[in-house]
């Protein structure tokens, strides 16, 4: 009676392991495959009878041999389970993603459990790998992370130009001001705006005006260094933080931007537009008490450039 009951329980267990939506692989300690359930057959296209007794790494050369060997050796030696999530390693078996809901992912994301199988004496003689398909969860989390990154970018950047928005840029001006007070390295601030921008809007329309603003932003982006921070301060006004840059070096950068804009043409549906900009530079000294006073110095230099005839760079 007991034998018959054990046999029934064994067959019930085997039926469950064949039908469950979890991959089950049993290996001996030399990585020869001893068991291979229906999940693994379905996703690999290899039947249990075909793969029985074969060396795992021969059949799946993409599996990271050194990594898995270290994991299995630790499980066998300590007789404890080990777990690996898809975030640590996206998958162990490179199975194609067959779920239509998460069709954006090329491969199945997997969580892995490595368990020891002991003999009656308590010695580990086999290893069981359980492979969980977590593609839907992983795909949702990745999509959420991408969305959050995009929201973070949008919250920091100006939608029209892609430059830093006013709030973010001003925070960086404040941070640069504090850095100067701590280390005393040369740093310059630039404020500039588009000359006669109202007439651009009046003559060509606001959509064409937006194209001019975008063009100014792109020219600026193309001519500043990676360490510099350019932002749209508002309307047709822009600002640039130039760390570790004295007045003369700042003038060189500004003249490059001014010249590129003066000699550029903005092609719009309302016509081709040529325009100029005026720029003011303020190298930071000990006299400003806060970053707003530093910005005011750059703004005053910009005002002088306007008063002086526009299309020029003035150092404050």
UniProtKB/TrEMBL annotation:
This is diguanylate cyclase. It is an enzyme of class 2 (transferase). It catalyses: 2 GTP = 3',3'-c-di-GMP + 2 diphosphate. It holds the Pfam family PAS_4. The keyword Ribosomal protein does not apply. Its EC number is 2.7.7.65. CDD domains: GGDEF, PAS. Residues 91-146 form the PAC domain. Keywords: Kinase, Transferase. Residues 185-316 form the GGDEF domain. InterPro entries: Diguanylate_Cyclase, GGDEF_dom, Nucleotide_cyclase, PAS, PAS-assoc_C, PAS-like_dom_sf, PAS_4, Rev_trsase/Diguanyl_cyclase.
């Amino acid at each position: 009676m007991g034998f018959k009951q054990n046999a029934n329980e064994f067959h019930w267990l085997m039926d469950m392991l064949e039908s469950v939506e979890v991959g089950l692989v049993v290996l001996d300690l030399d990585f020869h495959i001893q068991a291979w359930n229906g999940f693994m057959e379905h996703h690999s296209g290899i039947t249990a009878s075909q793969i029985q007794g074969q060396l795992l790494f021969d059949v799946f050369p993409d599996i990271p041999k050194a990594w898995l060997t270290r994991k299995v050796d630790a499980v066998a030696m300590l007789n404890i389970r080990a777990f690996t999530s898809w975030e640590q390693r996206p998958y162990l078996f490179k199975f194609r993603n067959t779920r239509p809901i998460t069709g954006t992912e090329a491969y199945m994301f997997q969580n892995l459990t490595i368990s020891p199988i002991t003999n009656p004496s308590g010695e580990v003689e086999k290893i069981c790998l359980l492979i969980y398909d977590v593609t839907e969860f992983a795909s949702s989390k990745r999509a959420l992370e991408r969305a959050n990154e995009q929201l973070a970018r949008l919250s920091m950047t100006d939608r029209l130009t892609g430059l830093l928005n006013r709030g973010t840029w001003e925070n960086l001006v404040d941070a640069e001001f504090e850095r100067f007070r701590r280390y005393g390295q040369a740093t310059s601030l630039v404020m500039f705006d588009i000359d006669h921008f109202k007439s651009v809007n009046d003559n060509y329309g606001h959509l064409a005006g937006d194209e001019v603003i975008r063009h100014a932003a792109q020219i600026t982006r193309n001519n500043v260094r990676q360490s510099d921070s350019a932002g749209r301060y508002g309307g047709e006004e822009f600002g640039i933080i130039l760390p570790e840059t004295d007045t003369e070096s700042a003038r060189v950068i500004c003249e490059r931007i001014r010249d590129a804009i003066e000699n550029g043409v903005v092609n719009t549906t309302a016509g081709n537009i040529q325009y100029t900009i005026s720029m003011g530079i303020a190298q930071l000294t000990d006299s400003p008490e806060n970053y707003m006073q530093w910005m005011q110095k750059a703004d005053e230099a910009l005002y002088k450039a306007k008063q002086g005839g526009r299309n020029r760079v003035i150092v404050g």
